[in-house]
Every structure is written in structure tokens, then in C-alpha cells.
Amino acid sequence: AQPDAERIYRDNCASCHGASRLGGTGPALIPETLSRLRGDALTTAISQGRAQTQMPAFAGTLSEGDIAAVAAYIQR
């Protein structure tokens, strides 16, 4: 079954990045603000977190497929 990227986002990302992805304690996650985090850089940021920020690593929480699905979701 295909991962439910919207549910994954809602459950793991929305509390910091906002339900509409327009930001909160974390930055907005819309295509215009993700220009430097494309492809592998984006999935790496989700998997490993981001140093010097409040972005946690999700590799221990989400599967690779879930991470790929939510990365694709936030790039739309």
C-alpha cells in the first residue's frame, strides 16, 4: 500500500510547520521555500534532521517509504 503522505505530515510535521505548510515554529514547507532542498537533500533533512535547528531526525520513526512520500507531498 502507498504511504498516506498527508497523514504522515499531519502526524509528524504539522505541529512545527503548520497544518497548511505555511510555517509555525518551523519554516514554511512550500515549493517556493524548498528550492535548495530538492531530491536527496530533502529526504536527508527529514531522515537525519538538521544540525543547528530544531528539526529532529525521523529515520527512527518513519520508514524510508514514508519519508519519500512526505518529501514528495511537501514539494507539490
Set out the fold topology:
Elements: H1 5-12, H2 14-17, H3 40-48, H4 64-74
Structure, explained:
With 76 residues, this protein is mainly alpha-helical. Helix content is 42%, strand content 0%.
Concise account of the structure shown:
With 76 residues, the chain is mainly α.
Mean pLDDT: 94
What characteristic shape results from the CA principal axes? globular
Give me the number of helical elements. 4
Structural class: mainly alpha
Radius of gyration: 11 Å
The H/E string reads HHHH
Largest sheet: number of strands, sense, barrel closure? none
Strand content: under 5%
User: How much helix is in the residues?
Assistant: 40-55%
Poorly predicted runs: none
Structural descriptors:
76 residues; mainly alpha; 4 helices; 42% helix
